[in-house]
Structure to design on (222 residues):
């Protein structure tokens, strides 16, 4: 996959380093001399392209017409929006990702500017804090469908509502599927007549909006 990264700051440089390690074709565009001096020590020379990504000619010479993904990681939100717009309308790059520097500008990062994925660090942090507060001991193992669903794991609390009940009798959330039960180190198939016991480890796929419901069923009573 060919990924074009605009902006060699901390986010852009870390992203480039990771993608290079995964053997993707990467080109990072940067024009600030001090930043260039730093990233040349971290990245292969052929990855770094000197120029200002907001210049359409620089974007084209860096390989935009062949890129499959543009990651706009510049310091200005206006620059990131403009880059996504130009990437899609002029160069037909299929996928665009933009970082949001000022959370107040988050409402601008949508399909109008051809932003497919907007990364708002403040929103992500708030979501993580809220999740940790609402899910108790439940662990999120994997996010699916852009965070709409998650693979979660929780150990059944000795006084949980679910203890002593068969799976068919559990009032599970409507968008929840039990994937496996681990009991004393053994994997059990979640059949309808299986009775949950304290310390069972439950693996489930659940919609983000219903994870708290599942946590209340399996975890420590309020």
């Amino acid at each position: 996959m060919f990924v074009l990264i605009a902006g060699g700051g901390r986010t852009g440089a870390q992203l480039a380093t990771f993608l290079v390690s995964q053997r993707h074709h990467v080109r990072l565009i940067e024009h600030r001399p001090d930043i260039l001096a730093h990233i040349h020590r971290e990245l292969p020379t052929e990855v770094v392209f000197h120029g200002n990504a907001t210049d359409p000619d620089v974007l084209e010479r860096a390989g935009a017409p062949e890129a499959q993904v543009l990651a706009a990681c510049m310091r200005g939100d206006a620059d990131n929006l403009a880059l996504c717009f130009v990437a899609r309308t002029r160069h037909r790059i299929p996928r665009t990702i933009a970082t949001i520097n000022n959370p107040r500008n988050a409402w601008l990062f949508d399909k109008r500017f051809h932003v497919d994925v907007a990364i708002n660090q403040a929103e992500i942090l708030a979501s993580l804090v809220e999740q940790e507060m609402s899910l108790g001991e439940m662990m999120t193992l994997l996010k699916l469908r852009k965070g709409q669903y998650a693979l979660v794991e929780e150990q059944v609390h000795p006084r949980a509502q679910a203890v002593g009940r068969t799976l068919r009798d559990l009032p599970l959330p409507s968008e929840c599927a039990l994937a496996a039960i681990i009991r004393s180190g053994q994997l059990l198939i979640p059949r309808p007549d299986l009775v949950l016991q304290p310390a069972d480890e439950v693996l489930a796929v659940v919609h983000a909006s219903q994870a708290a419901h599942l946590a209340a069923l399996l975890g420590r009573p309020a």
